[in-house]
Structures are given as C-alpha cells and as structure tokens.
Amino acid sequence: MIHGKNLIGFEQFANGTQTFQTYNPADLRELPELFVQATDAEVDLAVEKATAAYGTYKKTSGTAKASFLRAIADEIEELGTALIERASAESGLPEGRITGERGRTVNQLRLFASVLEDGSWVEASIDPAMADRKPLPRPDIRKMLQPVGPVVVFTASNFPLAFSTAGGDTASALAAGNPVIVKVHPYHAGTNELVVGAISRAAQKCGMPDGVFSSLNSSDFTVGQRLVLHPAVKSVAFTGSFGGGKSLYELAQSREEPIPVFAEMGSVNPVLLLPEKMKGETENLAATIAGSVNLGAGQFCTNPGVLVALKSNETDAFKSALVKQVQALAPQAMLHENIFKNYTKKTAEIFAETAVVKLSESATGASTLKGRPAVANITGADFLAKPDLVEEIFGPFSILIECADEAELMDVLKKFKGQLTGSVLGAGDDFRKFESHIRVLQEVVGRLIFNGVPTGVEVCYSMHHGGPYPSTTDSRFTSVGVDAIKRFVRPVSFQDAPDDYLPDELKNANPLNIWRRVDGELTRKTI
Amino acid sequence: MIHGKNLIGFEQFANGTQTFQTYNPADLRELPELFVQATDAEVDLAVEKATAAYGTYKKTSGTAKASFLRAIADEIEELGTALIERASAESGLPEGRITGERGRTVNQLRLFASVLEDGSWVEASIDPAMADRKPLPRPDIRKMLQPVGPVVVFTASNFPLAFSTAGGDTASALAAGNPVIVKVHPYHAGTNELVVGAISRAAQKCGMPDGVFSSLNSSDFTVGQRLVLHPAVKSVAFTGSFGGGKSLYELAQSREEPIPVFAEMGSVNPVLLLPEKMKGETENLAATIAGSVNLGAGQFCTNPGVLVALKSNETDAFKSALVKQVQALAPQAMLHENIFKNYTKKTAEIFAETAVVKLSESATGASTLKGRPAVANITGADFLAKPDLVEEIFGPFSILIECADEAELMDVLKKFKGQLTGSVLGAGDDFRKFESHIRVLQEVVGRLIFNGVPTGVEVCYSMHHGGPYPSTTDSRFTSVGVDAIKRFVRPVSFQDAPDDYLPDELKNANPLNIWRRVDGELTRKTI
C-alpha cells in the first residue's frame, strides 16, 4: 500500500538515496515502509510545476475550487479505517481522537468550499469614476484580493490530519488560489501519503492542473530550506516550535525577495484564576484545569502552561485539589521520542530551580514515551525576578504563579510576552474588579477566553488563532478559521479597466452576486 | 515663529546640542532657523509618553477619534499661507502644488474621520454560542480589529504634507487608535513644526492624552534607529528610497520582537504601449507620457520610469514625438541637493551604457537644482541581457524598451520585479490581443492602470498603493486610501466574554449600528 515516494504534481518520484521510517510512539515499534527523501532536483521540479500550475489555478473559479476542496474531503473519508489506523500508529494518539480530527479536517475543507461558493471573501471594492469631479475627474478604481503564488506548508507534529497534509494551511492556501507544496512531517509520512493520494485523486477528478499540489518527504532540514529559499515560492506556513518557526522566518527574510512566513509557534497561554471563582468551585476548577493540561498529553499550542492567582486560603485549597487531580491523571504516549525526552528534561530542569516548588505529578510513572503530567508553583516575586523561567514546556505541565497582591498580579501580567490565548476564570464581581488586569492580558493575546480553558479551538469565522510574537510571527493573521485564507492573498487595484478584463468579482453586473464595497458602502447591487 | 524644538506629548524639548537648518532648493538660500536634534533621552521619553497614552487612546471611541482628526484638518487650514509659504520654501515645489497637497492632506484626515464615524472598518465578526451542538457545544466567539501600540512614522521627502507629519501614515495610525511618533524629515523641519503645532492644538482641544503625538527632529539616522529598536514601538511606516526602507526593515527584524515595517520604496512603474494605440495617437501619447515623466520633477513613487513597446514604424514616430516633447519641457527644481546630484549621476551612468541610446533631454539646461528631463532607449534583447540596468532613477527620466516581437515582449514583462503600478495603453483590439501579456504584468503590480499614466494616486476605498517587493516591504497592505488603517491593527477574538466587557462594536445590541459578520453573513442586526 504505502510506496514511500514523493508526489510531484500527478507523478511519483523517488530518485533519492536517503530513506527514513516512521514508528509507533505507543509501543516504539518501527513501521516497515521506507520513505525516500526528495532530492534537490525533485524539490525544484515541485516548485516549477507549482509555478506553471499557478498560471491556470489562479484563474479557476470559486465554484470549481470549492468542488476540488469538497472532493478532497470526500476522498479523505473514502480512505476509511486505513487512514485512522495509520495516523494512530504513527502518532500514538487514540483512534477516537484521530477520528475526531479527521472530522475537523474534512469540515475545514468544506467550510472553505462554502466560503468560495459564497464568493464575498475577496473584499471586492469599487469606486466608480466621477467624470465631473473638480479639479480632476476621478478614474474608476476597483480592488480585490488575488492569490500570491506557490505556498509551502510545513505540517505539524501534533495534528497529523487537521494541521497537516490537507489541514487548515493547505485548505486555505488552495482556497485562495495558490498551488501548495507540502514538506512532510517525518513522524507521519505514511499518514501523509494516504492523504496525498486523496488530494491527487481529487485534483485529477476535478480537472485541476498538474502541480497544484505536491508532497516532498524529508527527515532533515534540507528539503524545507531549499523550498523556502526558492525564488518562485511566495509564502510559507508552519506550525511547530519557536526555534523551527524562527529559523524559517529568518531564512525567508534573508532572500533577495523576502516572503511572509506564518509560523504558529505556541505559547504558555496564561490562565488567570480570580478570587470569587476560587471560592466557589475549587474542586471543579482543579478538575477542569488538570484535564486541559493533560489533554492530548499536553501537546497543544493552546495548552495552559501557566496559571496565575492571588495568594489566599482558597488558592491553597485549589492547589490541594489540583495535586489530587494531577496524581490521578493517566500519562499518555507523547508524539515522538524527541518530544518525550525534551519534556522529561525540561520538567526536571524547572523542578531543579530553587524558586520553583514541585506540586505534584501523576502517580503512574512514565513508561515508553508516556509523559508524566505535572504541576509546579512559583511566587509572583520569584517570577518577576526571573520571568524567563516560565517558557513553554511542550507537554502536560503547568506552573502556578501565586501573587502576593493585586499590584504584583498586574506586574506579573505585564511580563508576559505574546500569547495565542489568555483565559480568565471569574465569578461574581471578579471581571469588573479585575478589568484593568484583564485588559493588560488582552494586549498580549490573540484570543481572550472567559470562564473556559484555552484548549479547543473553534474553526469558525470569528476565530483568531494568532497572537503577538513570539506566539506567532505575524499576529495580524490567523491560522485557524475562515480568515486563514487572507494569509495567502494580496490586494490588487484595477484603474479604468475594461469590464471584460476584470475578474467576475469586479464586473459591473456583479455576476457572482457577492457583497462589495461601492463608494465605501456594502452592497450586492450592480454598477 | 519657528522655535526648532521637539514636541514630546504636549511639551517642547531641546536638550540636544546638535542642530541643523533647512534651505530652499529653488534658490539654495539657507533658512535661518536652527532645529535641535532629539537626544536619546528625548527619544525614549517620546516612546514612554506614547506607551502611556496608548492605554487611554486605544479605548477612545471612533467618534472622539474622528473629532480629533477633523480638528487636525481644521488647524492645518488655520495655518493659512504661512504653511504654504514654508512648505514651498523648504521643498522648492510651487505654491499651487503645495496648496493642492494641503487639500489632499486635510481630505485624508476627514476621510479617515468619516470611516471612524461609520465604524464598520473594524471587521466585527460574531459566531454566537450553540449550546446544543454535538459532540461539543460551541462557545460564543467574537472578533474585531484592535490597535497595536505606538507607531513610528518616517516622513517622505517628496510630499512635505500629504506623506508627512499629518499625512496618510499618521492619519491612518491615529485613526486605528495608536499614538504616533514622527521622525521629522530634515528637509522640511519648519513645515513639520507648523503641522506639529496644529496636531498638538487639536489633541489638546479634543482632550486627547498627552503623548498621543510626538515629533522628533533629526538630520541623521540615530533618532530613527533608536525609535525602531525601542521595544515599546510596535509598527513603522516609511516612504522613501529602497535603501532606506530596506535598512529599517532589517533593523526591525533584528529586534527580539520583530515588528512590521511598511516601507513604500518606489518602483519603475512600467508603461506598456500597445500597437493600435501607437497608431492613432502618437502625438497625444508622447505629450501625456512626457508630462507624467516630468510631473513634480519626476519625484513621485509612481513616476513612469520604463516604457515598453514593440518595434514598429509607429513606435519610431512615437519616439520622434517624445523627443520633441521632452526637449520642450521646463526643468524644475528638485527637492534637495542630494536628490539632484544623484539624479544627475544616475542619468549620466545610464547614458554611458553602450546598450542605451540617449533619445533626448530638455533643451533648457540644468541650473541650481533643476533636474533636466530625459528619455532613453534600449532594445528588448539588451534589457534581457542586463535587466539590472533598468532600476529606479528618482527624477524626470524614463527609458523605452523596444521589443522585437510579442515573445520578446513577454520575456521582458516577466523580468520585472515588484512594482507599485503597471500601465497599459491600448486601443481597438489591443487589450484582447495582449491579454496574456497584461496578466503577466498584473502579477507584479499593486495597481493595474488602463489608458492612464501612473502618476496621480486616488485616495479612496479601492486604492491599493502597495506592490510586491521591492516596491514595498509588504504587498498585503496599502499606504494610500482607507485600507491604510489596516496596517496598524491586529484581530483579537473574545470567547464567551460578558457583554459589558466587550467593545461596543461587539456588544449584542450593536449600539454603533455597524456592519458585522454574524455566522458569516453581513448584517447590522442585533444578537
């Protein structure tokens, strides 16, 4: 079944000599198939095919692109249990979780299809000519978003489907009208290959151009670096570590023509526990937090890595409850040996800090790659003296910062760097009383959550999954939800263009019946 | 009248010892006033005041910000002839041009005021909760754009008013809710000071916070560099040379937290002259092009620096007509000795190239700083062999690339780097016949103009003034028109936020009656 080759346009290539295998993190069993790393020539060929395909694909209608995305979703579902089993085997994630993630993946594809069918996403804007304007006539100016060219997608380790081969980055880049080249995550090469087959079949069934999609295997940095440096590549999407995202960003900036890198690099996602809430629901709160910390073995970019509270008897009670909860948690297999080793090393390091008190870890010990859930404690004063202590530890870990008073709490909140999310849990008068604190937190987050945990990211119109640096490289764009499409477009204005040259979105007759801004007013009317 | 000091918030500072003067490029006469360069401490103070002001200003309502912008416009008009005379004296530009530019400046401020009064620009989006959704309930998610923090504006040399102290960058950054620090252009320090006074009076009359606006004098790079590297500065706008923009961009990327730099760096703005058009209107066409080349002594980022045509008898006739037109042009004073020297040097260099034929220059010779309009000629083959020959020469110069046939024309168009604009002049069947050529040009421009010259940039909703690199550092954003406001904002999502915490734009009752996307549908309805 699994052939281990690269897909470049509609053709398979395996001219390289370097191979790699994947393995199951749950039992450390190596999976038998060999994946052949793409050669330099294959990388270049993928970009050339993408560039050629772009000429056709950028002109493809919204409805045709929508059919393509729907066909990808259908083909992924057609893969059935083979995909679920393979993704589970390569990630160590339970089949239930993978099944849910497949649902999210096909829903995302269909959501972008519906956005394309609606058509209004292009932000069409028309300022008709004013021939009689003084001192000079006004020309006719029309504007809309257009695609940018080949996009390189680096797939994520922690979402083998929803942030991977046919995940949100690929779906939004294809929806925008750009060919996509996927740099395969070496942990999930088999899962990738199955999904690549689905995309390729969908592209051929829908008459999409050869080169609209390619997938390149790689177990080191060479393929990704060559892709990012290729002059014909116009944009890059990445989900992963701060180190990885930062290097790709710097590489892209070093080009003669710098290009955007949308790197989603995770964060500590501070959770502010307010006093009234602490009073009422200590046990519930501890259970909710512990569950969020250990969800997916803590391997979410929205994992609650930091808790913040005021010192009080209630906070002490919360700590006791949290200790109990964490002790009872069952460790889960982490995604990879490197991730497990890193988690074990980082938690050991932070526990060795004199300012840090280890509160608890799960009673069940770590076995194979199972990361042991753990929580720790630090005073606000110690955190303020050494804020760099509190950095993301990828895994089921969280540290509680206990503040002496409201002023110290404010200072602590002001120390946080850019975050994907910030959560505030309050009751009674909490939100009003701590409003100025919450507004400080709002300033450094992409999403502000009230009475909820940060894990769980809705795929919808209003989602913003993109916080200030260093949580992402570009806080102006989201990697989740409908507006993720805006990462891979740029506006173009047309001045006094003949109606038949204009894209349908800007023609006088508004043949697509989309919302347009005409002289600044939203309308569906014709010109 | 002119005091030469820095304005930091509402206070004047002049603790520095380094001073500079401005002079009139039309007669090389030095203007008497001394301007005191800002010290490091003054730079830091401006950023501190801006940061403090941000806390208040970001919460200021749209209507209050609109009143502020309108008050700035009124105060600028109140300056009367003093401003016109000073700006003309410091730029060498005729008073008529400066009066027109003042009109554009106050119109821009009032346009942004109207955008704020309307309120819909924040892209409010609401996905209400679905408590019954399976398998999990959907939380309430709402999103809108919010300001980012202190913005540094580097003012342009070629627009002493409209792209300067109270120009489009300042207007859009203030409109978005960000304090602004202007790094004064040393050529126009007196003009700046008059406008700074207007902004300061407007801010005080409207009760805006101290620090919402500051202006720092500088005749070297130190002040600008310190500003860009200050951790509390969140965004930078610049209009000027490629070298200047690129250094600021790289400086901003070198920070621990990289920040956006919106640098508008100009381009050669190719003008494609198509055969049918050439046949009918040789004389008119030559007059139009010559006028556009010499407009404002060619010192526009949209100056038509390159003409492209097919070799033909008509093109020969066009060249003869262009030669006559250019010879008859009157040289105008350039903005500064450096600009004039650079123009003279660059034109001499390109004329010395063996592949380049000097077609014509104005009969009137250069005197003081008057740049002599000139046009040159190169074959398509020679351009393809050495495309770097054709780079922007800031001033009244243009080079005609004559292509042997349609295939060579295509190759030439494919060689162009990112451009602010591309123009196509055609008649009869031209646009249809050359559609594939035009679409190649479209791919590298921010604005595609049909039967018009690139000079003249409308300030409207549909304007996109921002082409692919190297014409700007970020082709996704415009520096002219309403959407310029989007440079200085980022989206934030609110999840399950109490109604009274939410900004008015996202409250259930829609108290501002703005357009919002609710479950993906545009509406003004309440929730």
UniProtKB/TrEMBL annotation, chains A, B:
Domain Aldehyde dehydrogenase: residue ranges: 17-474
Transmembrane annotation, as ranges: none
Keyword Zinc: no
Source organism: Mangrovibacterium marinum
Protein name in the entry: NADP-dependent aldehyde dehydrogenase
InterPro entries (alphabetical): Ald_DH/histidinol_DH, Ald_DH_C, Ald_DH_N, Aldehyde_DH_dom, Aldehyde_DH_Superfamily, ALDH_KGSADH
Keyword vocabulary terms for this entry: Oxidoreductase
Signal peptide: none
Pfam families: Aldedh
GO MF term list: oxidoreductase activity, acting on the aldehyde or oxo group of donors, NAD or NADP as acceptor
Lineage, uppermost ranks: Bacteria, Pseudomonadati, Bacteroidota, Bacteroidia, Marinilabiliales
Highest taxon listed in the record's lineage: Bacteria
